[in-house]
Write a structure and sequence with these properties.
Layout (H helix, E strand, L loop, with lengths): L21 H8 L1 H11 L9 H9 L4 E2 L7 E4 L4 E3 L2 E2 L5 E8 L5 E5 L9 E5 L7 E3 L5
Antiparallel strand pairs: 1-8, 2-5, 2-8, 3-4, 5-6, 6-7
Helix pairs in contact: 1-2, 2-3
Length: 139
Amino acid sequence: MPEDPCNTEGSGGNSVNFYSNCAYWAAEKRPDVWVNAVWKYGYVVAPGGAWNIEVDAAQAGYPIDHTPQAGDLAVWGDNASMGSGWTASPGGHVAYVASVNGDGTITISQMGVNPYLGGYTMNLAYNPQETYFIHQLHG
């Protein structure tokens, strides 16, 4: 695989394992967060994993709250209850919010659920106490 600048976790940028995780997919869906926050504030895999994306985005001034909008990144901390019976990994989880549905669920697009399911999409009755949404940066 060619090197991809959004693949900040790749060892040499060419390992298929790194092209199938949640952070890589989020970077492809919202490269603005990587350019304005992750590259600037130093996202690292350990110890915080995907959770560091929210930390970096907050430091960069992105609006973050518990209310989803289409186009957001949804972020969960280590082992957080995501909702619908799903639990984030020990490094947290991040997904792209494709839509907010009338029934109170969100449709998320993600990787890392299964390394062979790139862009896996599902509806999630999210847990608002443990789900943070990174909105678009305005201004």
